[in-house]
Design a protein that fits this description.
By secondary structure, the chain is mainly alpha-helical. It has helices at about 5-10, 35-55, 80-90, 125-145, and strands at about 20-25, 60-65, 105. It is globular, with a radius of gyration of 17 Å. The chain starts with 5 loop residues before the first helix and ends with a helix.
Amino acid sequence: KVLNNFDKEFPRWKGRGYEIEGFAWWQGDKDRYVEAHAVQYEKNLVRLIQTLRQEFKAPKAKFVVATLGQTPRDAPPGNDKLILDAQFAVDGVTGKYPEFKGNVATVYTHPISQGGASNSHYNGNARTYMDVGLAMGEAMVDLLKK
């Protein structure tokens, strides 16, 4: 709705228009509570990327995914690990989804999380949010340079 009324919503930029260059996604917490959701997470994430690009008429928009910070790569099998693996699977460097090569990146947030978990919003730790935001921003800049 806002983008369809761009000139009205952003009068300072009237007539300039806009171009969506990228999307950022740091979600997955609620899906980890139900195994059926966790099992479908990768398929749904792929569909989300494709749908957002289509809906916003931005087929070349870059996409950065951040993993859930509480889940290490060597996590035991379970819903958290399913979500983590799905988030890594869409990264363009894996080759699993050739259409994502050079335009989708995954940021591993476990090493930069300052404790807590996604369901507790990382205990409200501002440093976690700043560090994850910076890492996602750096990943986006790298994608935009390609």
